[in-house]
């Protein structure tokens, strides 16, 4: 009798196990949906994050957002970024400063632009940005008010005071060239021309000299670039003189000014060197509305 009950109990147990296994086999397992936060305002994601959602698998091909500013492609006053472009090169070619183009175009990081992005290369309204001739008073630092604690200055390039033109050029100051659109030019250094202007091979003139020799501003202006971010130019300074003219000073060994600084004609801005060059020299360019022109036509006769 007891054996019969044992067999009946085993049978019941087997039935229950079978029922459980059958239920498990027929159940559908659902994964928790992945929440797509890419479009949630204020929920910034790391660049490396890859968010997957069911909707993403159904997105039509070519639905990636267009490059920034693409709606302005082809319009006057705009430029479409091409492979190999840098913002520095674009600014130089169009006679503008890097900061101005970045601000007009809403570019947060000037070091990151993409092919197809459309940049504004002219002021939003005509006459909105005007560079005026610099007065002597503007180059003099303002003293702190009495009793005002001085704050430590940020590290940056050493800024040289503006010496007289004769001292900056190592002797008698050269006669200034004839004014052109309000700009009066002088030679940026005392050496001789070792390579002349060529629209294709040499977009300025090369002037020989010795390492450490003074390089001066060829005209009043504002510093719009200081650095070594343009290939082939080495340590470079770019000055904006007005809405028409820029000048560039390349291959320096020491840079003595900083961006947005106002400088006067004849002020020492750098020391000659051989950065990104085969010898010590100053490569000097004059650009009229972004187009390179022969500096000799603007500089005074020697």
Describe this structure in words.
By secondary structure, the protein is an alpha+beta fold. Among the domains are: 70-120, LysM domain (Membrane-bound Lytic Murein Transglycosylase D, Chain A, Roll), CATH 3.10.350.10; 160-297, Distorted Sandwich (Glucose Permease (Domain IIA)). 16% of the residues lie in helices and 19% in strands. The chain contains five helices and twelve strands. It has helices at 2-26, 54-57, 87-93, 98-105, 165-168; strands at residues 78-80, 118-120, 193-195, 205-208, 214-216, 221-227, 235-240, 245-255, 262-263, 268-272, 281-288, 291-293. The strands form two sheets. Strands 3, 4, 5, 6, 7, 8, 9, 10, 11 and 12 form a ten-stranded antiparallel beta sheet that branches. The protein has a two-stranded antiparallel sheet with strand order 1-2. Strand 7 and strand 8 (245-255) form a beta hairpin. The longest helix is centred in the first third of the chain and has 25 residues, at 2-26. The termini are far apart.
Which shape, going by the Cα principal axes?
Answer: globular
CATH class of the domain at 160-297: Mainly Beta
Helical content (DSSP H or I, runs of 4+): 10-25%
What is the CATH T-level topology of the domain at 160-297? Answer: Glucose Permease (Domain IIA)
Proportion of residues in β-strands: 15-25%
Number of strands: 12
According to CATH, the homologous superfamily of the domain at 160-297 is Glucose Permease (Domain IIA)
N→C terminal distance: 131 Å
Mean pLDDT: 74
CATH architecture title of the domain at 160-297: Distorted Sandwich
User: Main sheet, how many strands, which sense, barrel?
Assistant: 10 strands, antiparallel
Radius of gyration: 33 Å
What is the overall number of helices? 5
Low-confidence blocks of residues? 17-59, 127-159, 162-174
H/E order of the elements?
HHEHHEHEEEEEEEEEE
Seen as an oligomer or otherwise, the chain set is single chain
